[in-house]
Amino acid sequence: MLVDTSVLVRALQPHHPLYPLADRAIRVLPEQRRKLHIVPQNLIELWVVATRPLGENGLGMTPAETAKELGRIKGMFLFLPETPAIYPAWEALVLNHAVSGKPSHDARLVAAMQVHGLTAILTFGKAGFSRFSGIEVIHPADVLASAIEEGW
To answer: What are the C-alpha distances in Å from 102 to residues 1, 18, 107, 128, 132?
Structure first.
């Protein structure tokens, strides 16, 4: 399962209302024997948000603080490599689904998932990924509801 950047960002914000969902989902899924993965694009997107000023919808972190967090995140998740096969997979997705604008970033994550054989993504942005067939789109709240049902 790929962890979307939206979940990683919220997991860095202890005072954000979505922090508990992000944090708990990241902790529960491995207990349920789900492997959590990230790709280079996650870290690039996270860098952009983390180092952007607070007034511009960022986290206002310094590059040094952000680098430390990226190192911690790389140690928490399975880090899949960038490969040449991702671009043609992305190009096929954006053309087949008429993707334009910012959702093109989501399509690239899906392309990386396809190349690496992943079929699920943990995300707060379910709508951005639901257009792609063969992808299980999981919201952190769904993880917690499932864990409660199973007695976790």
So the answer is: 22, 22, 9, 10, 15
